[in-house]
Amino acid sequence: MSDELSQKLNYEFLQSKFLKIALTHRSRGGDNNERLEFLGDAVVNFVIAEILYQQFPKATEGELSRWRATLVNRDTLAELAKEFELGRFLLLGPGELRSGGHERQSILSCAMEAIIGAVYLDGGFEAARTKIMEWYEPLIQSLSSAASHKDPKTLLQEFLQSRRLPLPIYKVEAIQGEAHQQLFTVSCQVEGLAEKTLGKGTSRRRAEQEAAQSMLGVLK
C-alpha cells in the first residue's frame, strides 16, 4: 500500500517510517502525525511564501499574505489529499473509522501537512520544496493568471471608500452541520442601504466573500 501511495505522490521514501507516522491519526494511538503536521505546516507556508515572493515582485505584503492564505488552508490541503486518495491510506482508530474520518476535511488536511513534514525529514528541504512546487503547480498557475484580480471583500471596501461610504458590516447569520463539516451563512450590510446580501460557504471567510460579491452587484 505504501508503494501505491508513493507512486501517487511521485516520491519514494528512503525511510518508510516517516510515511507511516504521517498517515497515523492520533485516534490510533502511539506515534501519530501531529508533530509531523506541525513541521509540514511551517515548511509549506515558507515554500509558498518564497514562491509568491519570487513570482510576484510587484505585489504588496498584504497581497502576498492573502494569496498565501488562499493556497495554504484546510480546504486546499484537503483537496490535495483527495487527489492522492490519501483517505484510503490513513490509519485511524475505531471511532474515526466508524464516523467516516477518512473523508473528513480536517483529518485530510492535517495528514497532507504531515506528508510534507515527512518528505522534509526523509529527503531534506530541497526534496520538500520540489514536491510542494509540483503539487501546487496548477494552483500557482491559476493564481498567476488571476493575480491582478482582487477578492470581493477588497473590491467592496475600495468601492465604498471611493464614495466616502461606511465600511460593510459582516454578520454570521447561521452555522449548520457538525464541527468538521460546517456551512456558514453570513450577511453583508452597508449603513444607509436597506438591502442586505447573504453568502454561504464552508468557512466564514468564504461566506463573507460571497456576500461581498452579491453586495457589489447591488451597488453597481
Secondary structure layout:
Blueprint: H1 2-9, H2 16-22, H3 34-55, H4 61-71, H5 74-83, H6 94-98, H7 105-123, H8 125-145, H9 152-162, E1 169-176, E2 183-189, E3 197-201, H10 204-219
Antiparallel strand pairs: 1-2, 2-3
Helix pairs in contact: 2-7, 3-4, 3-7, 3-8, 5-7, 7-8, 9-10
Helix/strand-derived category reads mainly alpha
How many individual β-strands? 3
The low-pLDDT segments are: none
Widest sheet: strand order? 1-2-3
Report the helical percentage: 55-70%
Query: How big a fraction of the residues is strand?
Result: 5-15%
Question: Order of SSEs, N→C?
Answer: HHHHHHHHHEEEH
What are the main properties of this structure?
220 residues, mainly alpha, 3 strands, 9% strand
How would you portray this structure in words?
The protein has helices spanning 2-9, 16-22, 34-55, 61-71, 74-83, 94-98, 105-123, 125-145, 152-162, 204-219, and strands spanning 169-176, 183-189, 197-201. It is mainly α. Strands 1-2-3 form a three-stranded antiparallel beta sheet. Helix 3 crosses helix 4 (61-71). The longest helix has 22 residues, at 34-55.
